[in-house]
Specification:
The complex is a heterodimer of chains A (about 220) and B (about 190). Chain A is an all-alpha fold and about 220 residues long. Helices cover about 75% and strands about 0% of the residues of chain A. The chains are: A mainly alpha (about 220), B mainly alpha (about 190). At the A-B interface, helix 1, helix 3, helix 4 and helix 5 of A face helix 2, helix 3, helix 5, helix 6 and helix 8 of B.
């Protein structure tokens, strides 16, 4: 065999793929042929360093792009979107555990249900603004209400600044949940306005405010 | 099932897959964080383009998400993910009409060795940057076989099956890839 033929076998020789007879033949040739030894040593280097090549990293924006694509692929049903929302809230190291978040959602639903069934809203009644509540709230701590409203304002402002960077699915989920909680709050406010001495109505309204804060805190972390 | 933050030990890939399949976004993100570099590196070395590598990496993880429910744990998740990645790259090559076998008009493999057979010239100490650059300059077919065999550790039987070629062709292309790299590194 000539050098060209031996060199064709060098890769298989390095990889241990030659039959014993061929291997012996190549080794004998390498002992006598400096050019073929040079090829062998160079290929060994190349193979050795190939095993040590470091992993590369893509841009940090790649994960956001994947999340946006996944959000587009979520099924259109509300329950599926809410499920994704709850899972994301959990993933954001929200202070509450998933059962507590679920309880919070259940409380929100109960508040809304009570607001729709027990507190009948008169559509001719003019909308209540925050200032109009001052006189109606007698038993509730003014400090509690002020603190909650300040928290709501602060969180809402923060969310407004971040919202433009959210994907459409998240934005729609936020808007929809905000509508639910504001409807509930409006119902509670009406009831307190109509029955200022009703402790239960006032407690319910306070809880509705607290739920709005928890909702906004959840979305503010995105 | 969700993967709670209170666990002190790392969940296994299989646990993360099951949690992600059940809708746990945090589990899916953790799978991404643990494996995205390997997937991207493989794509980058086979494609030699950061843009294409990112696009393919994105597609791989979207496929992972869609197929989470079908992963039964018969093989390691890394093996499954690796296969998925290689298949995505090969599909990308096929869509673009990239020929992975580099042949001359006569049907034989093009001789890419420029150094005279009797030369005793050696490459200098290999540095990783030069090697990465040289790999990127290989023709697609050589680069694919070299990446799969020497970097990713595939056997010739597996490579032949993936590329639809004979084992002999896989071995031949690997040797030519290595010799071509030797030439490129000698010029640097």
């Amino acid at each position: 065999m000539i050098c060209e033929q031996y060199q064709e076998l060098i890769s298989d020789y390095i990889d241990g793929l030659l039959e014993l007879g061929e291997q012996t033949m190549v080794e004998r040739h390498l002992g006598d042929c400096e050019p073929c030894r040079a090829v062998r040593d160079d290929l060994l280097q190349i193979v050795h360093f190939s095993h040590q090549l470091p992993e590369q990293a893509p841009s940090t924006a790649l994960w956001s792009r994947i999340q946006n694509e996944l959000a587009k692929e979520q099924p259109a049903g509300t329950s599926a979107r809410l499920k994704l929302w709850w899972v994301r809230l959990r993933a954001q190291n929200f202070n509450l555990s998933l059962p507590q978040l679920a309880a919070s959602a259940a409380a929100l639903t109960i508040i809304l249900s009570i607001g729709m069934i027990v507190f009948r809203h008169d559509s001719t009644t003019p909308p209540i603004n925050e200032a109009g509540m001052a006189g109606a709230v007698t038993n509730l701590s003014k400090v509690d209400m002020d603190e909650l409203e300040q928290q709501i304002n602060r969180l809402s402002e923060s969310i407004e600044q971040k919202k433009s960077e959210w994907n459409p699915e998240l934005r729609a989920t936020y808007e929809r949940n905000l509508i639910y909680v504001n409807q509930s709050l409006a119902e509670c406010r009406h009831q307190v306005k109509d029955n200022p001495a009703d402790d239960a109505a006032q407690e319910l309204m306070l809880n509705a405010y607290r739920e709005k804060v928890r909702l906004l805190e959840g979305f503010e972390s995105f | 099932m969700t993967v709670t933050a209170e666990r002190t030990e790392m969940p296994s890939d299989l646990e993360l897959v099951r949690a992600a399949a059940a809708g746990d976004a945090a589990a899916f993100e953790q799978l991404y964080q643990q494996h995205y570099r390997r997937v991207y590196s493989l794509c980058l070395r086979m494609l030699s383009s950061t843009t294409q590598a990112e696009d393919l990496t994105q597609e791989v993880f979207l496929q992972v998400f869609r197929k989470l429910g079908s992963f039964r744990g018969d093989s390691a998740f890394t093996t499954w993910l690796h296969r998925l990645t290689v298949n995505q790259v090969l599909m990308h090559f096929r869509k673009r009409g990239v020929k992975l076998e580099h042949t001359s008009e006569e049907g034989d493999f093009t001789n890419v060795v420029d150094t005279p057979l009797q030369s005793t010239r050696r490459i200098s100490m290999v540095d990783r940057l030069a090697l990465e650059k040289a790999i990127a300059e290989l023709p697609p077919g050589y680069r694919t076989v070299f990446t799969l065999h020497d970097i990713e550790g595939y056997e010739h039987e597996e490579i032949a099956g993936l590329l639809g070629v004979s084992i002999g062709t896989s071995k031949s292309q690997l040797h030519k890839a290595r010799m071509r790299l030797r030439e490129l590194l000698m010029k640097k």
